[in-house]
Amino acid sequence: MFELASVFVLLALSVFCCVIVFQDRRALFLSKFQRLLFISMACFAFLVAMEEVSWGQQIFGFQSGEFFDDHNLQKETNLHNLIPAMWLSTAINVVVYGCFIIIPLLYYCDFKVLALHKLLAWLPPIYWPSHYVVLMMAYSSSLHHYFSAITWSDTAALILSLIALLVYWLRVKLMSDILFTANLFIVIVCSSVYAACYDIFSQYNLQYEIREFVVVCGVFYWMVDWSLRLKEQMPPWLHDKS
What we know:
- The protein is mainly alpha-helical.
- It has a domain at about 85-240.
- The protein is about 70% helix and about 0% strand.
- The protein contains 11 helices and no strands.
């Protein structure tokens, strides 16, 4: 169910990116790089969606070819199962934790003594994810089978992410931001409940399907947020919060 939900969101993201590129033909609100970025994201989202359903095999039930029978980990007609699952999940975790949680929070906390802050200042403000995107990604990382040798790194990364969120909340003085504070509290409570009831994620693939769905929704929200800000000539979220 969650896998199909991810497919629908990915296809919607692909269509959205195509619509933005089409609208840019008249409005001209994208740079050449941004236009290329949207075209690439449209193709990438479609590719991932097709990979999720094994290019229609899971829907129509056709047989895998000899190559995929011999080399695919699940004997399905897709490319991502040709490599070890641990490699793929590690790559996804690096992107989610690094690009959408830890690095943005370090930058938003404005620790100017860190060399990282100067290094990240070159990235245009429009591309930085809002702290609501960060919350969505942190929530996605809470959805895993705790107290397992396989997921210990996920648990460690989640704890680090929650600490970083609390530091950001205190340093930027967001106590008066009721919406963000409430959502941060919900993420912390959910993480605690999921840890206490970790057996609900005992089915190996289920935890990853749910997490992938939340991550895909977070990426979609991020793309919609900054692209519509460009289109409507609104300031970047990074300027709005300051």
